[in-house]
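Final report, closing paragraph on structural work. Over the funding period we assembled a curated collection of sequence-structure pairs, and we close with a single example.
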Amino acid sequence: MKKRLLSVLTAGFLAMGLLAGCGGSEAASGDGAAAEARTLEEIKEDGTIKIGVFSDKNPFGYVDENGEVQGYDVYFAKRIARDLLGSEDAVEFVYVEAASRVEYLQSAKVDVILANFTVTEDRAEKVDFALPYMKVALGIVSPEDALITDAGQLNGKTLIVVKGTTAETYFTENYPEVKLLKFDEYQEAYGALADGRGDAFSTDNTEVLAWAKQNPGFAVGVDALGNTDTIAPAVQKGNTELLNWINEEIESLAGEQFFHADFEETLKPVYGDDVDPESLVVEGGKL
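Its predicted structure, as stored:
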């Protein structure tokens, strides 16, 4: 009798668990399953917007020596919070890695990704991109005493890349003879280059130019590779109301040349006069 009762109770608990897993909201599970994004109204009611940024990609998204998150993307994120919710402090920054950006949107861990997110056809099938606010190409940084000046020189050599980036895709498709050493985080990748574990590192040209200026002994021998791509905010696929609000925000900021001001505040201290803002900044979402 006791065994029968135990079996009935066990079956009941299993059934309850299955029903809980199937019904109600599409809450994300620990494995990053799909979850329904918050609406614009829900974000306003909560009073906080969750924005995914990098913590290790100086000068676009990084944590400074005081533990404060800074950078070109962060500057924009704070303006979004101010215009949407009335205060720059209304943004909750969520640190992401390059390979996790799509998953963080799909699982509703963030409302928006502002993490130097290059627009590609493959990504556009999984998330919705807003209007662009920056343009980039790939670059290659390497030691000055063994400078890589052409991508073809990497055949048979080791190139460091970050997983989930356009650099990984580009070299996989176009240079199969290049050995790729892949890392999850930018900090790890740059550490590997500094330690001599690879012959070069490739990512957005804006990023490698900044790093080379801050690290004597390294230089950017290839400053434009592949197509000129755009960087844009991204939201969960189908979150049209939030997407439209961000597009309207980008268009409205053109009148004050907001992204030029962003460049002056966050990027010029790094680049100096070596980078023309017109080669990078996009105002009003128009190339």
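The radius of gyration is 22 Å. The chain has two domains: 40-133+232-279, 137-228. We thank the funder for supporting this effort.
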